[in-house]
């Protein structure tokens, strides 16, 4: 039997967390390449980016494989593109470095050990492997293949209006509210630093979230004389603002900066890497994760695009009242266009069978890599905003960002299930 009363915990990290700094830089580079491709007249479907970032004390290293427009390549005095020993075009590091600096500045790092002006930035990007390209690119009558093998999961639950699990949704919201207050530079939150982590333990009764039993927040602060008690006085009003009314009670246990002083933060306090916060990026542990990271990848990488598609489908299944909870798995093989399998679990909440939903999903959306990119309009610079506070549970933007959060498949799904 499914438990109806329990506690579940999820964590989030702010945009200033070392790993999130790296995710942001990697995704800003994805956006940079798409913007440059549009300006240069390059077909955006030909863009390829697999960008990894490492950050430590005043040092950033950007590495990976790319296919970019000529405006991002090195040229000789005659205007010819320079090639490396392997025959690949050589990337011009200039715009990549400036993009990284702008990201660090936007996050708010101007401390001695990590400053947007003084950090040394190395760009080690090179051309995409021809072996990978032959499986992914269109050729003759061959459709675009998946950029790699793998499994991707999507999930939706009727716990919040955004159909995201409550623990991860509110862990994100706490940090978003605090970050917005910090960036105004006005009021008590102005003394907080960019690096922060939150954790929320949610109480469930009869399967529904009803309150918070534990709240954890560790946040960097610029005044080294502040105590944990001082920090709590600053952050508590914002935490209460982020959580539903009545969820915090006299029994709620608070852990604010439990180790005490937190002055040295960000990559100066701990090295960061792209893709190390994939559970924060998705469902906070309330649903499976296939294992692939999102940030720094163009949408031919199904690690990213198919995970977005799976969330999109799961959200529409729940929005169509076909279930109160839905988990969807998609699987792919490198160079193969069609998914190998579609799996649905409605967790005993379905109004129709899982098999009926699986058949319907295959009808309402083309789940090839090209089909996903086209349906969700993913070949555009929309990724930097996804790099912090979750890739899911966000509002779809006018610029096309978070298109996978739309519920525009409801009518088609209902019709397909009936058919």
Automatic annotation (TrEMBL):
<dbReference type="InterPro" id="IPR022629">
    <property type="entry name" value="S-AdoMet_synt_central"/>
</dbReference>
<comment type="similarity">
    <text>Belongs to the AdoMet synthase family.</text>
</comment>
<keyword id="KW-0479">Metal-binding</keyword>
<dbReference type="GO" id="GO:0004478">
    <property type="term" value="F:methionine adenosyltransferase activity"/>
</dbReference>
<dbReference type="InterPro" id="IPR022636">
    <property type="entry name" value="S-AdoMet_synthetase_sfam"/>
</dbReference>
<comment type="subunit">
    <text>Homotetramer.</text>
</comment>
<keyword id="KW-0067">ATP-binding</keyword>
<dbReference type="GO" id="GO:0046872">
    <property type="term" value="F:metal ion binding"/>
</dbReference>
<dbReference type="GO" id="GO:0006730">
    <property type="term" value="P:one-carbon metabolic process"/>
</dbReference>
<dbReference type="GO" id="GO:0006556">
    <property type="term" value="P:S-adenosylmethionine biosynthetic process"/>
</dbReference>
<dbReference type="Pfam" id="PF00438">
    <property type="entry name" value="S-AdoMet_synt_N"/>
</dbReference>
<dbReference type="GO" id="GO:0005737">
    <property type="term" value="C:cytoplasm"/>
</dbReference>
<comment type="pathway">
    <text>Amino-acid biosynthesis; S-adenosyl-L-methionine biosynthesis; S-adenosyl-L-methionine from L-methionine: step 1/1.</text>
</comment>
<dbReference type="InterPro" id="IPR002133">
    <property type="entry name" value="S-AdoMet_synthetase"/>
</dbReference>
<dbReference type="Pfam" id="PF02772">
    <property type="entry name" value="S-AdoMet_synt_M"/>
</dbReference>
<dbReference type="InterPro" id="IPR022628">
    <property type="entry name" value="S-AdoMet_synt_N"/>
</dbReference>
<protein>
    <recommendedName>
        <fullName>Methionine adenosyltransferase</fullName>
        <ecNumber>2.5.1.6</ecNumber>
    </recommendedName>
</protein>
<keyword id="KW-0460">Magnesium</keyword>
<dbReference type="InterPro" id="IPR022630">
    <property type="entry name" value="S-AdoMet_synt_C"/>
</dbReference>
<dbReference type="GO" id="GO:0005524">
    <property type="term" value="F:ATP binding"/>
</dbReference>
<keyword id="KW-0547">Nucleotide-binding</keyword>
<feature type="domain" description="S-adenosylmethionine synthetase N-terminal">
    <location>
        <begin position="6"/>
        <end position="130"/>
    </location>
</feature>
<feature type="domain" description="S-adenosylmethionine synthetase C-terminal">
    <location>
        <begin position="264"/>
        <end position="406"/>
    </location>
</feature>
<keyword id="KW-0554">One-carbon metabolism</keyword>
<feature type="domain" description="S-adenosylmethionine synthetase central">
    <location>
        <begin position="144"/>
        <end position="262"/>
    </location>
</feature>
<dbReference type="Pfam" id="PF02773">
    <property type="entry name" value="S-AdoMet_synt_C"/>
</dbReference>
<keyword id="KW-0630">Potassium</keyword>
<keyword id="KW-0808">Transferase</keyword>
<dbReference type="InterPro" id="IPR022631">
    <property type="entry name" value="ADOMET_SYNTHASE_CS"/>
</dbReference>
């Amino acid at each position: 039997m499914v438990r109806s009363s329990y506690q579940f915990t999820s964590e989030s990290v702010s945009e200033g967390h070392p790993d999130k700094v790296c995710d942001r830089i990697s995704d800003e580079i994805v956006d940079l390449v798409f913007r440059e491709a549009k300006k240069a007249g390059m077909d955006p479907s030909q863009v390829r980016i697999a960008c990894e970032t490492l950050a430590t004390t005043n040092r950033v290293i950007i590495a990976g494989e790319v296919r970019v427009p000529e405006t991002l390549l090195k040229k000789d005095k005659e205007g010819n593109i320079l090639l490396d020993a392997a025959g690949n075009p050589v990337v011009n590091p200039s715009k990549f470095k400036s993009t990284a600096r702008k990201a660090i500045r936007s996050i708010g790092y101007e401390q001695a050990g990590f400053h947007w002006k003084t950090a040394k930035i190395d760009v080690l990007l090179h051309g995409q492997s021809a072996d990978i390209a032959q499986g992914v690119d269109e050729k003759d009558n061959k459709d675009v293949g998946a950029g790699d093998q793998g499994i991707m999961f999507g999930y939706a639950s009727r716990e919040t209006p955004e159909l995201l699990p409550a623990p991860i949704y509110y862990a994100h919201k706490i940090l978003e509210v605090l970050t917005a207050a910090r960036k105004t530079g006005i009021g008590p939150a102005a003394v907080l630093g960019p690096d922060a982590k939150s954790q929320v333990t949610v109480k469930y009764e009869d399967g529904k979230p009803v309150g918070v039993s534990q709240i954890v927040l560790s946040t960097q602060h610029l005044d080294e004389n502040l105590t944990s008690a001082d920090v709590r006085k600053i952050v508590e009003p914002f935490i209460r603002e982020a959580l539903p009314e009545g969820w915090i009670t006299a029994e709620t246990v608070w852990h604010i900066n439990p180790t005490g002083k937190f002055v040295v933060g960000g990559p100066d306090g701990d090295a960061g890497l792209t893709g190390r916060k994939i559970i924060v990026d998705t469902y906070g542990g309330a649903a499976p994760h296939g294992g692939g990271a999102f940030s720094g990848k163009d949408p031919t990488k199904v690690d990213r695009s198919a995970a977005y598609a799976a969330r999109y489908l799961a959200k529409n299944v729940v929005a169509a009242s076909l279930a109160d909870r839905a988990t969807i798995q998609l699987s792919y093989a490198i160079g193969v266009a069609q998914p190998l399998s579609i799996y649905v679990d409605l967790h005993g909440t379905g109004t129709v069978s899982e098999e009926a939903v699986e058949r319907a999903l295959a009808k309402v959306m083309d789940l090839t890599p090209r089909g996903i990119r086209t349906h969700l309009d993913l070949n555009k610079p929309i990724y930097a905003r996804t790099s912090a506070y979750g890739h899911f549970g966000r509002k779809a933007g006018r610029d096309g960002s978070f298109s996978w959060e739309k519920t525009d498949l409801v009518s088609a799904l209902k019709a397909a299930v009936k058919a």
